[in-house]
Amino acid sequence: MEAAKQPVPKILQEKRKFWTPQRKEALTGWLFLAPEIVGMLFLNVFALGFSLYLSFSKWDLLSGVKGIEFIGLDNYIKMFHDPSIIQALKNNAFYMIMTVPIPIAIALVLAALIQNSVFLKNYFKVAFFIPYISSIIAIAAVWSALFHPSLGPINQLLMEFGISSPPKWLVDPKTSLLSIAIISSWASLGYTIIIYMAGLTNISDEIYEAAEIDGASALKKFFAITVPMLSPTTFFLLITMLIGSFKVFDIIAFLTEGGPNNSSTVLVFRIYEEGFKYYNMGYASAISWLLFAVIGLITAATWKMRNEE
């Protein structure tokens, strides 16, 4: 007679059930992701926590870690009484208005025209997109020559039209930030157009044909069909461009360095100045958390308006 089979212990049965093929596959995936997760935790979570601690501290970067001195809310109190921070917030708001809604509206119109009424569509796609993938510093250098107060082609053209005192553009406190906004909007216009054209391909031609049978004009079709059906695309561009407008730094650092008279200073540039020019990392961290709060509030307000709509 065959020996009676011994029952498998309960612990071994549970172990066999736990290490199923699906769990082994999941464990393999997590092991591949582990280096990225560890790097993200160290570079993001630790950096955020350390920055938050520094915002309540006084620290000269040159003094080393031992020089960190906890001072409570002093940095935040100082920040809200700092005229340069108030000016930077105003400049950020102006820059956001000039580089978000206006370029979005222009890009939407141009995308609709290129998609429906223009030959050589691929050529125009490339032509508009090239500035976006070009170096912003190279673009800024070209535009600084175009905006030259006396020798620039733009002012030369304005004087040809009878304007004897054209704007001084980048060297005038009244127009310096506007000039930077024009350059940034021009450089990013191609990206916005490409995104809108991708959204236009998802709108069925049958909808336009039905509207045309009903006698709708081109303008009516644009506002009654194109604009509403591209609202998800518009919302995506609105969020990303809002956040991007508060992160502007390189073009300002290259063209004006925040001047003249702080007329083009923004929050990111003030963070750079405090942290890496004056080595006041505590105050720079407090400004960075102010920037984080402003972006978060604007994004949340935009989401709320979108949900209500």
Task: Give the arrangement of secondary structure elements.
Blueprint: H1 10-18, H2 21-54, E1 57-58, E2 69-70, H3 74-79, H4 83-99, H5 101-117, H6 121-133, H7 136-146, H8 153-160, H9 176-200, H10 205-213, H11 218-229, H12 231-246, H13 250-255, H14 267-277, H15 281-308
Helix pairs in contact: 2-15, 4-5, 4-9, 4-12, 5-9, 6-9, 12-15, 14-15
In brief, what are we looking at here?
The protein is an all-alpha fold.
Fill in the keyword field for this structure.
single chain, 309 residues, mainly alpha, two-stranded antiparallel ribbon
Question: Care to describe what's here?
Answer:
α12 (231-246) packs antiparallel against α15. This protein is mostly helical and 309 residues long. A two-stranded antiparallel ribbon has the order 1-2. It contains 15 helices and two strands.
